[in-house]
Amino acid sequence: MSRLATLSDEQLIEEALKGSEAHFDVLVERYTPQIYRLARGITNSHSEAEDVVQETFLKIFKNLNKFSSDKANFKTWALTIARNQSINTLASIKRKALQFFGDREDDDPEPDFSFNPMSSEAQDAETLMSLKQRFYQLEGALKKIPERQKTALILKTQENMSYEEIANVMSVSVSSVESLIFRGRKKLIELLEK
Amino acid sequence: MKCEDFQKRISKLIDKELSADSMDALHRHLLSCADCSEFYERSKDINHVLNSAILMAPNTALAQRVKEKIANKTKGSMTESRPMFWRSVPVYALVALLAVGVGNLAGKTLVHSLLYQNSESALELMIPNGTEYLSDIFVDIGQEGQAQ
Q1: What is the pLDDT of residue A116?
Q2: Does the pLDDT at position B1 exceed 90?
Q3: In angstroms, what separates the C-alpha of B98 from chain A's closest C-alpha?
């Protein structure tokens, strides 16, 4: 791990604001997976999610001087931008789909599951294969639930964020987050039963 | 309390957001309610599968592409600033023209003022009548010659 990778987000931002591209690059490496997963969950598309990641970081780069660590932490701020970008992209996809095809079939390649050295499960190829199959099945159901429920569930289960942090990203109350996650789970169970 | 209320608590329990004082009642209910027990098991399963997406990594080249795009953007913004400089050239030209014009109005060109200011002062020292320019003396001499 490089020396820069050990710095906190705030330290990296401070140096990036002085003009250090190397420090900003560490932020890109640190948050690309989280932003990609959220964007993929919302847009249901690998290629659109990659575009969202690029656009999100460009916005972050342009507006870095507006970031205030007193109001939010960097992760919350970055995911808020990513969510808004994903919603805009999703709206654009839906408009195009309505215009040309009536309904859109996602022809994206399947996402790559890679071995995460932090996960003990990933060491077992059979477990990984089984998880992959169940994830694709669940992903089909996720496409059918409202964006707000899906976003809240993704941020909770994949990014392990607290209800309060999710509330900040989504600009809603903590009780709304509770309700969105509960309804999302219930809906997924119903969809998987069918 | 209805099953729906207990299921809301189950959702919070799975997310580690349930307060300790709400847990006892929930555990007692789970022992006696098959529907809520099933909701609990299925919710835990969905959570586990959704969590496995952490293993789903974006293309490793994605972060690199983002970095390159931002580096290009930074260079782009630097090259974008150049036209700003060239756009101000007419302003500099106008200022220079005004300076020449003002110089001419004063009876001297800018070149004259710049190049001959020092030498003129030196000539003035050589002229006995310090109130006149050397050129005026030549004109006077010429006029005297014509009169003769």
Answers
A1: 47
A2: no
A3: 40
Q: Do A21 and B71 touch (CB under 8 A)?
A: yes
Indicate if the pLDDT at residue A9 is higher than 50: yes
Q: What is the pLDDT of residues A62-89, one digit of tens each?
A: 999 999 888 889 999 999 999 999 999 9
**Interior/surface letters B27-53, b for 16+ CB within 10 angstroms, e for the rest:** eebbeeeeebeebbebbeebbebbbbb
Domains present along chain A, CATH in parentheses: 7-104 (1.10.1740.10), 124-194 (1.10.10.10)
Average pLDDT on A22-32 reads: 94
Interface residues on B facing A, Cβ-Cβ cutoff 8 A:
7-8, 11-12, 15, 17, 39, 42-43, 46-47, 49-59, 62-63, 65-67, 69-71, 73-74
Binary contact (A181, B62; C-beta < 8 A): no
Q: What is the pLDDT confidence band of residue B77, given thresholds at 50, 70 and 90?
A: low
Given a contact cutoff of 8 angstroms between Cβ atoms, the answer to whether A189 and A134 are in contact is no
With vertex at residue B102, the alpha carbon angle to CA B97 and CA B103, rounded to the nearest 5 degrees, is: 95
Nearest to A135 among B39, B53, B71 (CB): B53
Whole-angstrom distance, CA of residue B6 vs CA of residue A83: 31
pLDDT score of B147: 64
Q: Which chain B residues are within 8 Å of A29, Cβ to Cβ?
A: 63
In 3D, which of A59, A123, A122 has the Cα closest to residue A85? A59
| Closest Cβ–Cβ partner in A25, A33, A138 for B49 | A138
**How close A153 comes to chain B (CA, Å)?**
9
Q: Which residues of B70-97 are buried (b: 16+ CB within 10 A; e: fewer)?
A: beeeeeeeeeeeeeeeeeeeeeeeeeee
Mutant choice from A40, A48, A157, A189 vs B, greatest count of B C-beta within 10 A: A157
What was the pLDDT predicted at B132? 53
Mean pLDDT of chain B: 75
Phi, psi for residue B56 in degrees, rounded to 5: -80, 105
